[in-house]
């Protein structure tokens, strides 16, 4: 997996089937998608990784959800919270991605948390939908959160992933579009390319992948 959108949400939660999203992804130059609410497989030559989102703002809720999550062939993600919550997440084996940093409190991801993310190889997801859909102060907050994360990543070297959160084919974006959007947060082209490749090193599905014609 060399070019991955780290979050799409196909039907029934979204508006477009995973097969149609896979076809669109292939046309946009991707070779894989992380799909939330879909099973792993290969459609139109596109590898589908099952994404699992852990909900809850208490660590005990996260630990309970981890026990219920099927970790095989899955990329397990958790929403960012305050600083102490995020540090605790770093110590839970199996969590691979910290999502929705743009919606977390100020200083929720500091140098200590960044170093922990680097040591544990937990990625920070850059949700590009926040840069597209949000307006006003909410958008400025998202830009600032991710810009701060870029500076910390330059120092500590934790991984980034890039996602669109697309619920329909119309919300999907090409690699070129992603690079353009990432100029808003000062992530260089080389950083974008690394982020597009990151899922391949974060998630190593076990067992055969079902191929669907």
Outline:
The chain has a single domain, classed as TIM Barrel. Helices cover 41% and strands 20% of the residues.
Largest sheet composition: 9 strands, mixed
Total number of distinct structural domains: 1
The run of helices and strands is: EHEEEHEHEHEHHEHHE
Assigned CATH superfamily: Metal-dependent hydrolases
SS elements, strand count: 9
**Oligomeric status:** single chain
- The fraction of residues assigned to DSSP E strands is 15-25%
Globally, the shape reads globular
What Rg, in angstroms, do the CA atoms define?
16 Å
| Helix-strand category | alpha/beta
**Any idea of the CATH topology?**
TIM Barrel
Which range best describes the helical content: under 10%, 10-25%, 25-40%, 40-55%, 55-70% or over 70%?
A: 40-55%
Residue ranges: pLDDT <50 for 5 or more in a row? 205-213
Number of helices: 8
Distance between the termini: 19 Å
CATH class: Alpha Beta
CATH architecture: Alpha-Beta Barrel
**Overall pLDDT score:** 91
Polypeptide structure, described:
This protein has 213 residues and is an alpha/beta fold. It has a single domain, classed as Metal-dependent hydrolases (TIM Barrel). Helices cover 41% and strands 20% of the residues. The chain has helices spanning 18-27, 59-68, 83-90, 111-120, 128-133, 136-156, 175-182, 189-202; strands spanning 4-8, 32-36, 41-43, 46-54, 74-79, 97-99, 123-127, 160-163, 211-212. Strands 1, 2, 3, 4, 5, 6, 7, 8 and 9 form a nine-stranded mixed sheet that branches. A hairpin with a 2-residue loop joins strand 3 (41-43) and strand 4 (46-54). The longest helix has 21 residues, at 136-156.
């Amino acid at each position: 997996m060399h070019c991955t959108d780290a979050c799409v949400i196909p039907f029934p939660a979204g508006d477009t089937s995973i097969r149609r999203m896979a076809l669109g992804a292939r046309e946009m130059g991707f070779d894989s998608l992380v799909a939330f609410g879909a099973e792993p497989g290969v459609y139109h030559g596109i590898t589908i990784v099952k994404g699992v989102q852990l909900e809850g703002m208490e660590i005990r809720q996260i630990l309970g959800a981890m026990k219920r999550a099927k970790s095989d062939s899955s990329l397990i993600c958790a929403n960012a919270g305050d600083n102490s919550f995020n540090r605790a997440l770093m110590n839970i084996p199996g969590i691979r991605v910290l999502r929705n940093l743009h919606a977390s409190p100020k200083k929720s991801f500091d140098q200590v948390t960044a170093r922990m993310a680097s040591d544990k190889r937990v990625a920070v997801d850059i949700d590009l939908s926040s840069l597209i859909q949000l307006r006003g102060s909410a958008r400025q907050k998202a830009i600032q959160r991710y810009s701060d994360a870029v500076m910390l990543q330059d120092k500590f070297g934790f991984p980034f992933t890039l996602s669109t959160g697309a619920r329909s084919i119309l919300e999907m974006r090409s690699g070129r579009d992603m690079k353009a959007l990432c100029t808003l947060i000062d992530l260089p082209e080389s950083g974008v390319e690394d982020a597009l490749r990151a899922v391949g090193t974060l998630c190593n599905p076990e067992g055969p992948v079902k191929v669907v014609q």
